[in-house]
Amino acid sequence: MTVTLKDIAKLANIDAGAVSRTLRNHPKAQELRPETRERILKIAKDLGYQCNLLASSIRTGRVTTMAVIGRFAQDNFEPSDSQILSGIFKEATANDYGIKVFDDSDLPRIFAEIAGNRIQLVASLSVAETVRIQTAELCRKNGMRLVFLNEHTPRANIPSVILDNADGAIQAVRHLAGLGHRRIALLCVPHRFHYVRERHRGYLEGMKLAGLPVDPELVSCTDDTEGAARRMLSLPRRKRPTALFGIADNLAIIAQNTALRMGFRIPQELSTIGFGASDAGTFSYCRLTTICENLALRGRLAVRLLLGKSVDITPDGDGNYLIRPSLIRRESAENCNETP
Prior knowledge:
This protein is α/β, with parallel strands linked by helices. About 40% of the residues lie in helices and about 15% in strands. It has 3 domains: about 5-50, 434 Repressor (Amino-terminal Domain) (Orthogonal Bundle); about 65-165 and about 295-325, Response regulator (Rossmann fold, 3-Layer(aba) Sandwich), CATH 3.40.50; about 165-295, Rossmann fold (3-Layer(aba) Sandwich), CATH 3.40.50. Helix 6 (about 105-115) packs parallel to helix 7, helix 8 (about 165-180) runs parallel beside helix 9 (about 195-210) and helix 10 crosses helix 11.
């Protein structure tokens, strides 16, 4: 049997209007005594009452649903996105909002659905710049509030909650330098995305801050990670790296495996640091020291911005809210034992 507002009102000994306002968290509900509100909420929970959000939105004009857009098809789903989504879900739930998830492969179609559901708040996890630009334009046309995650904002006046990727790379390099390493290699990939460029820039800045020269032979931006690692480790002893920073955990793990096949001892002859704090790093031959991206926090802050709530980060001049990463120390990076 369906539980109604009148059922709750009768048991709470109060009028149905007060019950409705309390269950919808309406500002006027604050006029009730706290114990009255608690009694209403407890009775509603005990009776298994479920609010009809669609009917409520039609009646009040307020939709408590957010849209999350990203590349969620099975072939393209990034494991890191699941952690961002976790933060989004937790913060949205804490603010009595629901979430609808959309794949970004057909933006005109999904925005027609978003508009049809009267959703006004959109979080985009898309990485491709063309997709983000189109998303910004469709949100502008439909009067929707938008926050980007994963990449810098492509448009002015649109906030983006992202990691300070350059700072993460600086931390990695300075940690290796602090362990006595002087020949620190970089395994990068082609600069298709902004975060890749930022991690490369952070490596260069970290080397500069540590007072170390950058050897072009120890820098690689290619999709052939194994080939690049093999080439670096085949250099003469006084030229090859004693430590290596991969801009993603998988690159550092590939370097570890390549070094092992070439007969190197890990980490005694090659220290490695990755980026991303992925589960794979805990199962590599030598547990990977890495940079944690604080992904769930990114999701929570994005929701707070969409709701117009304050956050503890001041945006840069382009509207990017940069979250500082943190270093996770494990066994893959140790003191350099090379003799002069």
